[in-house]
Amino acid sequence: MKIVIILPTYNEKGNIGELIPILEEEIFPMIKNHEMNILVADDSSPDGTVDEVRELMKKYKNIDLNIGVKKGLGAAYIRGITYAIDKMKADIIFEMDADGQHDPKKIPEFLKKIEEGYDMVIGNRYSDGGSIPPNWPIKRKIFSVFGNLLVRSILMRFNIHDWTGGYRALKKEVFLKEKSKLGPFPSYTFQIAFLHKAVQDGFKIGEVPFHFTDRTLGKSKFPAVEYIYNALKYVVIARILELKRFIKFLVVGGLGFVINAIALRLLVESYNWHPASANLAGAVLAIFSNYNFNNIWTFKEETSKGILSYLTKLVGFYISSSIGVVLIQTGTIYLGTHLIGRTYYFIYFLVGTGFLLIWNFTMYRKVIWRKKTQQL
Ligand SMILES: Nc1nc2c(ncn2[C@@H]2O[C@H](COP(=O)(O)OP(=O)(O)O)[C@@H](O)[C@H]2O)c(=O)[nH]1
Ligand SMILES: [Mg+2]
């Protein structure tokens, strides 16, 4: 396969001149089954980075150079990866810092993971033997470890350990699928957003632990304050959007609950019905309300058109709901009134409804509004 290692550069003169010969002379000869190439994605660095790259290009013929305007790391990667795929016909792309912080000896391990079937492979500094520089001041270590942990926790995806790093390998398909969504992330948040979108779309993610070493030459371009703001904003909004459906589901269920509760109280208090029968009557109304609001709102993407499908699903919804309503919810009320007494019937209703909630969401997702892709 054709591999392109993208090295984004902004004022990396000296660093790039050190890294490229290591890649060419020590690493690439170890890789026999792939065609290895380098793309330097520079943003018109004023320090002469490009001149250094041009010198190296005379010696090594597998280097390409893509120069653009400085808009940030994410923008440089989007431009560079597009160039690697369109112009260089890359199958696999690497993201790698040009400052020597990413140990190039790990490249074969990334490739092995890709060969094993992973779509995107992430360099991992936080577990399985990976590490951040031991000589970093404690404040920087805390920032790095806790920042990453915070991202993992908010996104609730704990099986990926390093969300913020920039040492990665990916199949071109991953980028082609996500490219259109990455425009809003021209700076370092690009790394979190790209990985998150790949995870959401079900791409298989692998990890390779590595020791992140310190820069020896030049300065970091990492914009800390801006990054904290943008990264937090991304993860919080992304998580709310992921939970949107669940929140809608709760609102619809809440309305159903109110309908059920009013009918129950009215029939018991004013008409002296048995709480169990009154609950069944209330539930019939609540189920109708839940079905219609979920259909037009919560799961509207999965709603099929046509009256026949509407009615078939309504019947299916009543049948699947009735198991929960009769056995779980009404069953709890029935047991409560018989074992403890009728006085506390509303408490049995609350407890029974709690059990019902768990049962319902599982049923809705698996039977009524399951994802279209799962039906294939
Ligand atoms: N082309 C380009 N490269 C950048 C930009 N910002 C950072 N880089 C490069 O991206 C890599 C990582 O940046 P660095 O400053 O080392 O960030 P740090 O490792 O988080 O401190 C380095 O190779 C930088 O030269 C940018 O705006 N444009
Ligand atoms: Mg760096």
Describe, in plain words, how this protein is organized in 3D.
The protein is α/β, with parallel strands linked by helices and 376 residues long. The protein folds into two domains: 2-222, Spore Coat Polysaccharide Biosynthesis Protein SpsA, Chain A; 243-375, no CATH class. Helices cover 57% and strands 10% of the residues. The protein has twelve helices and seven strands. It has helices at 15-27, 49-59, 73-86, 107-115, 138-155, 172-178, 190-200, 224-269, 275-298, 307-339, 345-368, 372-375, and strands spanning 2-9, 35-42, 63-67, 92-95, 120-124, 168-171, 205-209. The chain has a seven-stranded mixed β-sheet with strand order 3-2-1-4-6-5-7, sandwiched between helices. Helix 1 (15-27) links the parallel strand 1 (2-9) and strand 2. It is elongated and about 95 Å long. Magnesium ion (MG) binds at residues 97, 99, 101, 215, 220.
